[in-house]
Amino acid sequence: MKKRWWQIMAVLRTLLLVRHAKSSWKHSNLDDIDRPLNNRGIRDAPIMGQRLLARSLTPDLMVSSPAVRALATARAIAREVGYPLEAIVVDDELYAAHPDDVLDVVSAFHDNVQLALVVTHNPAITELANRFSKSPIENVPTCGILFVEASSWSRIDVATLVDFDYPKKR
User: Fold this and answer.
1) What pTM value is reported for the model?
2) Residue 1 lies inside a defined structural domain of this protein
3) What is the overall mean pLDDT for the chain?
4) Is the pLDDT of residue 62 over 60?
5) Which long-range contacts (C-beta less than 8 Å, at least 24 apart) are formed by 29-32?
6) Is residue 105 part of a domain?
């Protein structure tokens, strides 16, 4: 049987790279990994989840850094898009990660995942933004989301930035 062009087209994978929402520096006795979100972060994370929902973007997989602020961001977004909180995967490699560490985590995703959301930290997020973008991005603000497309997770290193959103953009 002859295959039609739409049957042989590659299905793109979409990665939503999220910088955690704004964190609090109020408790100087806390270790960095234990810093919570501040009021702005608590406000912004659900707003960004609502923006994803408005675009019908519900991830097949959500992965977060173990940092309190990152996991709180992931949970707030998950609630808005209808992703089960207990299904959020916590990956220690995403805390204080180098951009290549983030890509290593993503490249291991299963092929059946079409849309993945990863919550991690700067400077890795901004460095990845500039790796995938044709125009320089000075800084990905807190709770900023990079919309990245790739032909496969194993080829995420040659992905393309197709959109960039953050709380103050609108």
Assistant:
1) 0.92
2) no
3) 93
4) yes
5) 32/67
6) yes
Using CA atoms, how far apart are residues 19 and 125, in angstroms rounded to an integer? 6
List of long-range contacts for 37-41, beta carbons under 8 Å, 24+ apart? 37/69, 37/72, 37/73, 40/142, 41/69, 41/72, 41/73, 41/142, 41/143
- Which of 121, 126, 85, 81 has the alpha carbon at shortest distance from 105? 121
pLDDT digits (tens, 9 = 90+) for 92-107: 999 999 999 999 999 9
CA–CA gap between residue 11 and residue 110 (Å, rounded): 14
* 142 belongs to a structural domain: yes
Contact between 78 and 49 (Cβ < 8 Å):
yes
- 33 lies in a domain? yes
Q: Quick one: which of 90, 139, 81 has its CA closest to 118? A: 90
Kindly state the tokens that stand for 27: 């408790």
CATH number at residue 120: 3.40.50.1240
Residues comprising the chain, all counted:
170
What's the domain count of the chain? 1
Higher model confidence: residue 2 or residue 90? 90
Burial (CB < 10 A; 0-12, 13-18, 19+), residue 101, is middle
Domain of residue 121, residue span: 15-169
